[in-house]
Write a structure and sequence with these properties.
It is built from 13 helices and 2 strands. It has 305 residues and is an all-alpha fold.
Length: 305
């Protein structure tokens, strides 16, 4: 191997990609809670779940930065041997915290759906998707914890151990995760398009919910990077997974908060003298009039606490 090859580094790129979105996820949750306070509503279960999701996502972010310090983004040949067990321990912990993050964020979104859409068939569909998410998380946790026998064989290469295939495990847990992402994205669309409002209003509301599509994109890119998990030069080959996993959870937190920020957006538009009177009043009338026709649709401002 040439000196030029061994001197390659993706570490700056990694930190430059994950730090801004970790900060944005914090801002998103703060704005979500601020929006509730502005309209004098109590925090709901969905709010507490997203706070938990944020804490877990910051745990993923912290592990990503630690893994960069230990050698992620560098070729394995230049990573100090003493760093390898520490790096693998971070990978082990990452699997558990990542799953907790995804579970918290998805349950927050589904709980929000249950609160704003009061239709029984829709709620049954939400509970069904939520059950799939919980089963997925429990399964991933179990396999993650006992992926090697003995458990410390995951990070201690001196121990004789039997481990599940990394590639099969990572791909196997990513595919159901993406499927439930898509289900959660499309769940509210039928409700939105049943509203008695203008096509533009329906498109706008659909767009708000579909912003979570960024999470699906991240999940799909992350899945592609995981096919390199068995590469011998894993600190270099797996760095893409480190980046996209951190981005996925940050985007998840952000997208879960976006539909709740209407009060903050309206305040900001008034603050900067941006006219919203026609659109806002029309929107409010649409929500109010559609409440009866959909038997329970509440405004995206979060009313109904």
């Amino acid at each position: 191997m040439t000196t030029e090859f061994l001197s390659q580094s993706q570490q700056g790129q990694t930190l430059g990609a994950i730090i801004p979105f970790a900060i944005l996820s914090i801002i998103a949750v703060v704005l979500r809670l601020l929006a509730k306070s502005m309209i004098h509503l109590r925090y709901g279960v969905d709010d507490y779940l997203i706070i938990l999701g944020l804490c877990c996502s910051l745990g993923c972010f912290s592990l990503s930065t630690i893994m960069v310090r230990l050698g992620s983004g560098l070729h394995l040949d230049v990573v100090p041997t003493a760093n390898i067990p520490k790096y693998l321990k971070c990978m082990y912990a990452y699997q558990l915290i990542y799953t907790a993050t995804i579970l918290s964020v998805k349950l927050s979104i589904l709980t929000y759906y249950v609160r704003i859409f009061q239709i029984r068939p829709f709620r049954i569909a939400v509970y069904a998707v939520g059950s799939l998410v919980v089963v997925w998380a429990i399964t991933v946790w179990f396999i993650s914890i006992f992926s090697c026998r003995p458990i410390n064989g995951f990070w201690d290469t001196s121990v004789t151990s039997s481990c599940v295939s990394n590639k099969e495990f990572y791909v196997g847990n990513a595919v159901p995760n993406i499927c439930t992402d898509v289900m959660i994205l499309i769940l509210p669309l039928r409700m939105v398009w049943a509203l008695q409002t203008t096509r533009m209003q329906k498109v706008t509301l659909s767009g708000i919910f579909l912003l979570g599509g960024f999470v699906v994109v991240c999940s799909c890119i992350r899945l592609g990077t995981q096919f390199k998990v068995d590469d011998p030069d894993f600190t270099w080959a797996m760095n893409g997974t480190v980046i996209w996993t951190s981005l996925e959870v940050s985007f998840g937190v952000i997208s879960a908060c976006l539909p709740t920020m209407r009060p903050v957006v309206r305040w900001a538009m008034r603050k900067f003298n941006i006219s919203t009177n026609d659109t806002s009043k029309s929107s409010q009338r649409c929500f109010t009039s559609s409440h009866a026709s959909t038997r329970g649709f509440e405004t995206l401002s979060g009313s109904g606490g």
